[in-house]
Design goal:
single chain; 76 residues; CD2-Gal4
């Protein structure tokens, strides 16, 4: 059987009222708009650094950035 104090504490946690034990929010990562062609073809993570991303530099791959051919249409 729960005591009144413990049930109050549990309900505060469920509502997000008790922030002392809450972990810090993860840092928000900036999404890349364009990965290099090599990383895209190999389906690996690209950090988007130029002139050569870290993945291509690590494996000594050619790092090429091609402009996108996709055109965005108007928003509805």
């Amino acid at each position: 059987m729960q005591t009144t104090e413990s049930s109050t504490r549990d309900s505060e946690r469920q509502r997000g009222g008790d922030t002392a034990d809450a972990p810090a929010a993860a840092p928000v990562r900036k999404r890349l708009s364009l990965a290099c062609t090599t990383c895209r073809q190999r389906k690996v993570k690209c950090d988007g650094a130029r002139p050569s991303c870290k993945t291509c530099a690590k494996f000594n791959w050619p790092c090429i950035y091609q402009p996108s051919n996709r055109k965005r249409g108007p928003r509805p």
